[in-house]
Amino acid sequence: MEWATFQIQGSNNENRDIILSSLRNKIKRHFCSKAHALAEKIENLKKNDVLGKNVEAMNMSVIKETYSVFRTAYYLAKNNRPFTDHEALVELQQLNGLKMGQILHSRFSATNIIEHIAKEMQCSIVNNIVSSSSKLAVLLDEASTLSRKATMIVNIKASVLGEPPEFIFLDLVELQDQTSEGIIQDLMSCLTKAGFTEEWLKQNWVSFVSDGANVMVGKHYGVSTKLKIRFPKLLTWHCMNHRLELAVSDAVDKVTALNHFKIFVEKLHIVYSKSNKNQRELLESATEVGTQVLKIGRILDVRWVASSFRTARAVWTSFSAVFRHFEKASNDEQRNCTERQTYRGLGDRLKSPEFLCDIGLMYDTLHELSIVSEELQGQNMTLLRADLLVKRAIRVLTSFKTQPGAKLSDALEAKDRGTFQDVHLKSNPKIKSINTEEFLQSLIESLQKRLPFEEEILKDLSILDTNRWPSEPGIRYGEAEIHRLCARFNLCPDQAIRGMRDIVESPQTESQDLKPRKNCMQTFPVSTAECERGFSIMNSIVTKKRSVLLVSNVSNLMTINLNGPPISLFNPENYVKTWARRHRTALHSQGNVNL
To answer: How many Å apart are CA 187 and CA 182, to the nearest integer?
Structure first.
């Protein structure tokens, strides 16, 4: 009772030593008492959270069935299956003996679960980026869905969990207004809703990349122009792959003979894309002459350069098979006179050495540009690497003027020989062949005009490339460039300078002080290829039978498709816990749930 009522007293003796000895005796007896031992036990149980863990263990056994439901919904999203499959899959698993609870079995529940997973996944990614103050790049592109809704795909590139920057799908936004003001409003609303405040963006948003549409890159009223007014330090960028395509288009417009070549290849595409009979006969002709047949598509149209190269390669590879088919079709009595004459004209054009040299020239040129185009689409591509690739391609194209490429050399040899792939060549004076030097010079000029870099930014970014350093750099080498970059992109200059001096003194070392600057440099996207890949996923999701899907649901499905782990690695625990705070689990009775 003395301890419980805080009335601990020593001995009544006036001697201080005796009083203290009495108190020490009472403390010792209390320390060895059952009451003290019980109190210590309770404290230890509290520290170990035994009650909480017991409750959690009980809940875990209860919500395991909800885990199964969540995995089923995740499977639908990851494999582009309709929401209506959810109920059937749940029923199948129940027949196989798996407990799936009482509720959350309808397609409406699947829709809500997928939305919850997508939002939680996005929230986790954005919170990590914001808390670590990672530098952010935003990629934007527009497209229409099958239901004719104007949409905008928003991708970001940033460092997550301290790893090198990577592309992340953020959202698919339905555009209410396709003007620059409307796009900016929808973009800022998307970023704010995701968790990026305007103050944070002013400190950490470093790059904006889009295609070359006038509404995006317009000099006075484009989205990029207006964003730079709002965020003065923002580096705006026009997609390199789109620039490359525009450079080729400029060359086509300047060289008249290229249009004749393009029209003829387009006729080849139409002959085989619109007739199953012609495709079958082409395969038979290829078997007869022993060659391979590749699909002949469009060339030099709005698609990227790699697509045009595949068409040039298909025509070159299938040359003898195509000619053999035209020859047989021109003598086929089952066809009418007009058709036979058409195929005879196509065959005469095909076997001309002028066309053969043209296709050889286009093969070599488009092959070189397609290599650049495909590399520019790489996720690890940097501005420095892109600059190197473009300048190298220009040098290669320049060399083609004096030293023809491999396929053009083969075509010139075949022209002198008079045969190519066992096809006898016959000159056609009506055909205007492409002037090689004129075409190459036009293409080089277009590339130089369409693919410029900001020299100051490029120079500053290249300061860490030791291959460009002088033989004996001074200890303060690169300080001016480092200061400019740090001022523009809000990096710590002292830390960057320390890291720079570490590399100057020992170029082979990896300085941790330069990691923020390297991550910033790798954050700048070169191309909007990730947006194009996102639209490919969107087209796989929004099929003709699913064209009525809401844009918000399509966005949720794309988030899981592009950002989510494989099904085998998906852990529903955290998603189920956050779901249980606001919703019912699978074990609740149907009568007590509000779905």
So the answer is: 8
**Res. 47: pLDDT tops 80:** no
Helix axes 436-450, 383-402, angle to 10 degrees: 160
Count CB atoms within 10 A of the CB of residue 492. Answer: 12
Helix ranges, 300-453 (H): 305-317, 319-330, 337-350, 353-376, 383-402, 406-417, 436-450
Summarised one tens digit per residue, pLDDT across range 283-297 is 888 887 777 777 888
Binned at pLDDT 50, 70 and 90, residue 595 comes out as very low
Is the separation of the CB atoms in 535 and 140 below 8 Å?
Answer: no
The CATH number that domain 121-238+528-539 falls under is 3.30.420
Q: Which of the 8 DSSP states describes residue 566?
A: P
SS3 call for 531: helix
CA dihedral of residues 426, 269, 527, 374 (deg, nearest 10): -60
Which residue, among 102, 120, 87, has the nearest Cα to 584 in the 3D structure? 102
* Domain chopping of the chain, boundaries: 1-48, 51-105+571-595, 121-238+528-539, 244-450, 457-523
Segment 201-217, tens digit of pLDDT: 999 999 999 988 888 88
Q: What is residue 366's three-state secondary structure?
A: helix
CA–CA separation, 343 and 287 (whole Å): 20
Higher-confidence position of 241 and 505: 241
| Least-confidence region, from 18-27, 78-87, 106-115 | 18-27
Name the least confident of 2-6, 527-531, 549-553: 2-6
Average pLDDT, the chain: 85
CA 301 – CA 258 distance, rounded (Å) = 12
How far apart, in whole angstroms, are the C-alpha atoms of residue 391 and residue 240? 13
C-beta of residue 327 within 8 angstroms of C-beta of residue 347: yes
DSSP state letters, 5-66 = TT-----S-S-HHHHHHHHHHHHHHHHTSHHHHHHHHHHHHHHTTHHHHHHHHHHHHHHHHH
Q: Residue 119 CB: number of other CB atoms within 10 A?
A: 15
The Cα 439–Cα 361 span in angstroms is 10
With 0-12 CB in 10 A as exposed, 13-18 as middle and 19+ as buried, what is 185? middle
Strand order in the sheet with 150-158: 166-174, 150-158, 136-144, 205-210, 235-238
Cβ atoms within 10 Å of 380's Cβ, excluding its own: 10
In 99-239, which residue ranges form alpha helices assigned H by DSSP?
A: 107-131, 180-194, 198-204, 214-217, 223-230
Name the nearest CA neighbour of 128 among 37, 195, 214. Answer: 195
Chain segment 239-261, per-residue pLDDT in tens: 888 888 888 888 888 888 888 88
Q: What distance in Å separates the CA atoms of residue 269 and residue 212, rounded to the nearest whole number?
A: 28
